[in-house]
Specification:
elongated; single chain; 4-stranded mixed sheet; about 25% helix; alpha+beta
Length: about 325
Amino acid sequence: MGKNWCMYLLGLAATLVFHVYYFGWYSWFLLVLAVALPWFSLVVSLLAMLRTRLKLETPASVAHGEAAYVTLWAGNGFLPQPNLRFRLSITAVMTGQKTILRQKVKSQGSWYVPLPTGHVGAYVCRVEKPRVYDYLGLFRLPVSAPAPVTTLVLPTAKEPEKLPNLSQFLVRQLKPKPGGGFSEEHELRDYRPGDSPRDIHWKLSVKTDRVIVREAQEPVRGLTLLTFDLQGDEVRIDETLEELLWLSQWLLRHDTPHQILWMDPSDYELETAQVEREEELQALMKRLLQTPLRPDTPSLEGRSFPRATWRCHVNPREETP
């Protein structure tokens, strides 16, 4: 706007000099026109300036590395669009890194700005200081900024290079399977009222002259625990969450409910999430992606958890000195 005012004042000064040294009638006309031009521009532009609206949209979530864009729209309805300027800020919640992109709009319509999806995390897009100018760019008015929007860049499951022992889970004991049904383990006992005839062991009942049933048993596993550290640079966070996602999904596919434990960087308190379904795992991932990181968060790798019968600490790569 300052540049436009300088150009206008230079033109006004030239018109004034012309009027001083030339006595023709149109020198006066040009001087009056030059003086009235800014106010005429403001009157003509005012309706379009007041009607200008700005919209901001982003996808709710995208996969790590997938192309995604911020969709911006500006317009006022049916009038020519005055010049619109604002700053688009994209903030990574986990690292706090903020990118400022200056935007200048001269026509109605939509345009697209790429989102950074090279690393997992939550990215908050916000419009800052939107201003609309008259057609000459001499006056400006503030424009109502749209609400900030957040996009989650989700990790994709990645198999660890060094797999833990995933085939053996310690079984402390067996218990009757609720509702009966198929099971590789059974316990023989006398018939009780309410038992299903399908569970009667007919051959053994004939031999013993008693009604014997096969009661299906299921294993009682101890605590299955996954731990990880929410620390390190962006690449390490990517690898940690991708391997954590793979291990948790592997356990779910093998019907193994488990707990995921980590240290919250905000208060250094241990956080635990019980995962029994895929929906719970995805909700946990969204929660983790919106957690601000701190460089001095302690590690859980050396801690012991006596209650856990199987524990795996996600450690995607060793730190290089």
